[in-house]
Amino acid sequence: MVIAGPPEYMGKRRWFILAIFVCLLAFSCGRELMAEHKHADNHLTAYNHSLATILVEYASAVYMSDLTQLFTWTCPRCSGLTAGFDIIELLVDVEHCLQSFVGVAKDLNAIVIAFRGTQEHSIQNWIEDLYWKQLDINYPGMPDAMVHHGFYSAYHNTTIRPGILNAVERAKKYYGDLNIIVTGHSMGGAMAAFCGLDLVVNTEAKNVQVMTFGQPRVGNAAFASYYSQLVPNTIRVTNDHDIVPHLPPYYRYFPQKTYHHFPREVWLHNIGVGSLVYEVEKVCDGSGEDPDCSRSVAGNSIADHLVYFGVELMCETWRSCGIVMDSLAKEYGKMDVKGNIVFSRDSSILRMKTETNIGGDRM
User: Fold this and answer.
1) Is the pLDDT of residue 356 over 80?
2) Higher confidence at residue 347 or residue 142?
3) pLDDT of 28 over the 60 cut
4) Phi first, then psi: what are they for 286, rounded to 5°?
């Protein structure tokens, strides 16, 4: 025999059971979301401060306009943490105002590819132009993925890409199957991202790492998702109130139709007051648009865009695409009818270079 309690007791009992069920359901869903977020982050690279301080010097050196000093790695920015770097090819696309180099860093046991950022008459004009940039081209082989035509074309539709791929192939021939590290600042960071993706997708390169500084957004959320799967070993370093990582604008109410950063961001910023101020390197989440990182502040500083880790990331002068070279550099350079130049070390020099043992990882 079942003894039923008073009606009010039975009603409370049913509400109690329902409350327990709702709590269990919520707890289960919460655990699942947390597990998925953690799983996504596990596919992203760990941040290495020492590597960042090395690569920012390569991103600075590629701005040098004296091509002789840059090609021979004797420029004022070609010492310090990058001393002993062997340039294989220096590429100057005068027509589109682009510059890049490929070489081998023995201490990193890697091929390093660096892209120069914007070299316009006025960086202010370039930044203002970014406010109005639209997603205007579909990325090949990625459904729904759209990117910025200008950044895509700067890498894919100029003399830069064939020169890069040729240099990587030559480097592997003479130095072995080394890791590849791609870096750049500002627009050079956007080109570095497209280069890293290109190497993985179209040349099936292994162990490709990308680290950029002050990089703008380059595509939508679909592109960011594809990119993070294909090139998970990527770090975007942003600096305090740097304006460029905020551009082109991100509109959180239209996630599929707006520009979206890919992960992982590392945000450099200062905390504290008065004499108790120190720099923090915050490793952000796997969303690419962590609201607690650079998006938590107003992106309104050009000064923060031009200096990372105390290293200047700009040209020596504000001349547009100005270059300097002497007869020594011309001996190694080939110029096409449009004035674009490729400086290459010949095979005999590369053979001599490979006699030096490559090793001794600095990281």
Assistant:
1) no
2) 142
3) no
4) -90, 10
Is the CB of residue 97 less than 8 Å from the CB of residue 349?
no
Let me know: does 256 contact 144? Beta carbons within 8 Å.
yes
CATH superfamily assigned to domain 46-353: Alpha/Beta hydrolase fold, catalytic domain (3.40.50.1820)
Q: Note the pLDDT tens digit of each residue in 101-154.
A: 999 999 999 999 999 998 655 688 788 889 888 899 999 999 999 999 999 999
Q: Which has more pLDDT, 37 or 194?
A: 194
For residue 262, the number of C-alpha atoms closer than 13 Å in the C-beta half-sphere is: 30
| CA gap 134, 223 in Å, rounded | 14
Residues shown for the chain:
363
Alpha-carbon distance 196 to 28, whole Å? 39
pLDDT at 10 over 60: no
Strand residue runs (E) in the chain: 86-93, 98-105, 110-115, 137-138, 146-147, 179-185, 208-213, 234-239, 265-271, 278-283, 307-308, 311-312, 333-335, 341-344
Q: Give the residue among 52, 184, 166 at the shortest CA–CA distance from 116.
A: 184
pTM: 0.83
Give dist(CA 151, CA 292) in Å, integer: 27
Domain ranges in the chain are 46-353
Count of C-beta atoms within a 10 Å radius of residue 147: 25
